[in-house]
Amino acid sequence: MDTKLTSLDQFKSWAKENGFIFPSSEIYGGFQAVYDFGHYGYLLKENIKNLWQKAMWQERDDVVSLDSGIFMHPKTWEASGHVGGFSDVLVEDKKTHKRYRADHLIEEFLDSNSEFEIQNSKFDEEIVTALEKKDMDKIAPEKLAIIIQELGVKSPDGNDLAEPRNFNLLVKSNLGTTDATFNEENVTYLRGETCQGIYLNYKNVLDNLRVKVPFGIAQVGKAFRNEIVARQFVFRTREFEQMELQYFIHPDMNDEVYAMWKEERINWYTNVLGIDKASLKFRPHEKLIFYAKAAEDVTYNFNSMGKFDEIEGIHARSDYDLSQHAKFSGQKLDYFDQEKGERYTPWIVEASCGLNRLVMMVIDHFWENEKIDDSGDEKRDYRTVLRLPKNLAPIKVAILPLSKKEDLQNKAHEVKKMLQSDYMTEYDETASIGKRYRRQDEIGTPYCVTIDFETLEDNAVTIRDRDSMQQERVKVDELKDYFSEKFS
Ligand code: ATP
């Protein structure tokens, strides 16, 4: 039996069956690339979010929070370059009409056909380099068309492909218009990234929150992208949560601040979320966009995908964002350093991660099928345990009366009441105690408290530890102190 999650299908079923993540709109046959978070998934997501917020603005003096709207003035997306350039290149299977990302199809083709012919009079230098590097990122649709044609790339179903074309990822809305007045000119967009709301509030924060460069604005919120290929569970969805920090600096500080945030963020993953260092890797961008000074992805080695993939981007963006919005809005978005008497447009270093991907990462990392017996019966010999660090666990303490006898139920409710103002607890009286322990192991609950018949005599309960499976007897009167030490 595999000890780790080995596929996204397995991950998806596990997440659904255990109340973490549900596919959207299932009763209507499903709705592609959107997922809903169930009780445990939501609690886990909130725990990660809270830890990020704590690291961003509670434990620092130089970062403030923000909660900007999902809708912004349409000019925002022109200034940011999203209306013109935020697109993927798509190809359609001529037979099934399914759409795929052209770059992905070609890269997959190259991976499985090591002997492809690179000498071709139709290939220019850019195509040859892209083929050698097996990296089709930023290659124009016309050139992707040549590659598909010349190498004979087919759809995953083996069919011919239509001409590749650009597909804008911004999601449109008709906010503020009626059917009669709605047209391409007055379209508003659901935000494709949360950071634009930060740039638009730079001046408000500067003028009203007594900040001085260097300072950061951080926010968590939903973003929407019309992703074409979204078959990677919650790794790539059309609606997702981002956690973004934009840190405003003097241009001279760029290298130092970029290095500082790389270190801060990797330490957060290892020290706060408990991810092994070996499972994380920086991946520098092959090609920098023209205004960027540096760009790297933090990647995590997903067991369920069998590869490292991006969880966060750390980018040195120069003065591009503020300059663009200054240009399009006609407003001054600069900074005056009173001590030095210097006026300049701040540069930005950003650390931008996807909350859904982090939920996926921590489950992927801490999920384990552990061998605990040798009877030959797989069900008995293995338990699934989610070894989440305690601060991430959705449920901290489960309260389990040994039987459904009324006096045990009453005592269990009394214990729950005592603990629930400090910890997220759960009461469960269904199934055998062994099964209930397994269920709590599987959702990552660090401690189970069992109320048995002896409890009624000695006012003590049995506490079972998720990881060691050791049990100990603790007086009910001492429970609060016991857990406050365990969770400290
Ligand atoms: P990718 O290359 O995977 O499409 P990206 O480079 O476009 O991602 P950014 O625009 O830098 O991503 O967004 C920052 C972070 O937001 C990413 O590192 C990722 O964690 C998250 N993210 C981006 N797109 C999605 C999505 N469709 N679903 C879930 N999370 C996403």
Automatic annotation (TrEMBL):
It comes from the Bacteria. GO terms for molecular function: ATP binding; bis(5'-nucleosyl)-tetraphosphatase (asymmetrical) activity; glycine-tRNA ligase activity. The keyword Protein biosynthesis applies. The keyword Cytoplasm applies. Keywords: Aminoacyl-tRNA synthetase, ATP-binding, Cytoplasm, Ligase, Nucleotide-binding, Protein biosynthesis. Its EC number is 6.1.1.14. Residues 214-401 form the Aminoacyl-transfer RNA synthetases class-II family profile domain. GO terms for cellular component: cytoplasm; extracellular exosome; microvesicle. InterPro entries: aa-tRNA-synt_IIb (IPR002314), aa-tRNA-synth_II (IPR006195), aa-tRNA-synth_II/BPL/LPL (IPR045864), Anticodon-bd (IPR004154), Anticodon-bd_dom_sf (IPR036621), Gly-tRNA_synthase/POLG2 (IPR027031). It is an enzyme of class 6 (ligase). Pfam families: HGTP_anticodon, tRNA-synt_2b. GO terms for biological process: diadenosine tetraphosphate biosynthetic process; glycyl-tRNA aminoacylation. This is Glycine--tRNA ligase. The lineage of its organism: Bacteria, Candidatus Dojkabacteria.
